[in-house]
Design goal:
The complex is a heterodimer of chains A (293) and B (280).
Chain A (H helix, E strand, L loop, with lengths): L2 H35 L17 H7 L2 H33 L5 H13 L2 H12 L5 H8 L14 H26 L3 H9 L4 H12 L1 H17 L2 H6 L11 H10 L4 H29 L4
Helix pairs in contact in A: 1-13, 2-13, 3-4, 3-7, 3-10, 4-7, 7-10, 10-13, 12-13
Chain B lengths: L13 H30 L17 H9 L2 H32 L5 H13 L6 H10 L6 H9 L2 H12 L3 H9 L4 H12 L1 H17 L2 H6 L8 H9 L7 H21 L1 H11 L3
Helix pairs in contact in B: 1-13, 2-13, 3-6, 3-7, 3-10, 3-12, 4-7, 8-9, 10-14, 12-13, 13-14
Chain lengths: 293, 280
Amino acid sequence: MTPARHTAAIHGWLLLLPAMALLALFTHWPAVATFIDSFYSTARPRRPSRYVGFDNYEQIASDPVFWQSFANNLWFALGTIPVSIALAMVMALWVNDRIVGRTLVRMAYFTPTVLPMIAVANIWLFFYTPQYGLLEQITGLFGGSSRNWLGSKDTALFAVTIVAIWKEAGFFMIFYLAALQSIAPSLAEAAALEGASRWTFFRRVQFPLLMPTTLFVLVNAVINAFRMVDYIVVMTKGGPDNATSLLLFYVYQVGFNFWDTTYAAALTTVLLVLLAAAAAVQYGWLERRVHYR
Amino acid sequence: MSAAARPHPYAPTGAGRAIETAAAWTLAILWVLPLAYAVWAAFHPPEFTTRFTLLAPLTLDNFARAWIAAPFGRYFLNTFVLVTMILACQLVLCTLAAYAFARYAFRGRDVAFALVLAQLMIMPDVLIVENYRTMAKFNLVDTIPAIALPYVASAFGIFLLRQTFKTVPKELDDAARVEGASALQVLLKVYVPLARPIYVAYGLVSVSYHWNNFLWPLIVTNSVEARPLTVGLQVFSSGDQGIDWSIICAATLMTSAPLLLGFLLFQRQFVPSFMRAGIR
């Protein structure tokens, strides 16, 4: 190494040092420690922590609440991701056309994104309140029977899914809007000359050109489906009877309500593996099928 | 989209246009309905919370009662300190790291970059159990820095700035160095000014993310002195006045007001910023 390259390397590492140190402390080390801890038992007053092998994982395998949270999370993801992405695309197509008052419409769609999750949860809690909430009043007008949307096992997860869709669609819309505006107008003119219908133009031109955006949005939507649990804490606390418990919420409950930290670590490991698998599928398999310009 | 452009051949016309406009507006109304309902409840006396008459008297009483019922002043201060602290540290750390990744060639750089990007998948939001233990070891539990620290080295910020710095022409860098500027001077005089729109975008996204963040602050704080607004609001609305919706709606709007107002006033900057900054 020449002296000049040597100093460049030292400068480079010095510039990186503060960020890397914090990353190591709060991302890399905790990830590794989570994995290590998951093989130990939680220290209790008269029983210090000890190595227990795969005990925590065996406990997970036979834990009905874990499986319910897992299933809930899958249904939650299946409910929010396709609907919010489809809605986002439709919103973007509408706002991209010159409809009357489109600035206002775009603002309305985007507003949930700037609201704190916790505020959103409070507002929807009010909206869903039995006997009192707006939803109840509207269904009451049409002679519907009273319903406790968040208090019933059958409807609680659905009610929470609606909130997530409401919160996310407008955020994803802006990416589609940007992508639509970058599609060359000449493509539309050429398609029109060929006599393609609007539907054909969307299906054959716009939709394929939006695929990279869809992949990006999808990755975000999947991460959010496993990460966003704020409104669960506020609206249902995982209930009734664990009907709305999602994985990260369960980690939170085990770690900070039951204080079983190593079991929470094992659960976190499972969650991280799921996230990594989702990422691998999306980048490895989907990316090859995405049309790039 | 210039106004002078020819009409888009697929722009809807006639009945199609009317239907599309109606559909778009219906969805927009549905989208603001929950918020509008909260606004109604917050600005009217409790007896009108669910009675919609045009003559219902307007009042600010709910806000006054909410403000007295919980230390919202302190919560506002905490959130303000938190958001400022995070953004300031993020800007410094991410700028330095991004500069190293964009303009220095050294052994181990690519590995280091991969380690940075790992944070995009392994987010601090998920590592709550271990990070809490770390904070307990450092004796930082229930302090504002404890809320901030896991987020300060932001992989996303580093990535965003690195991409931007890479587009700065190398000639500008060389010219400044020929004139005797040091590496840090070049960074501050050449790179940072050129990346300004990205800084604005990243700043807006970071501020709104951390203003809204909830789970980690909920875990790591337990006193009024450290609690940010979101956690304070939760403690308030799940407390004794759990039933009085008009006060809860007032408190909810109060805590979201700064961001909401900022968004309404700077709508044109906000949306492109979120677009540019992508993931939060």
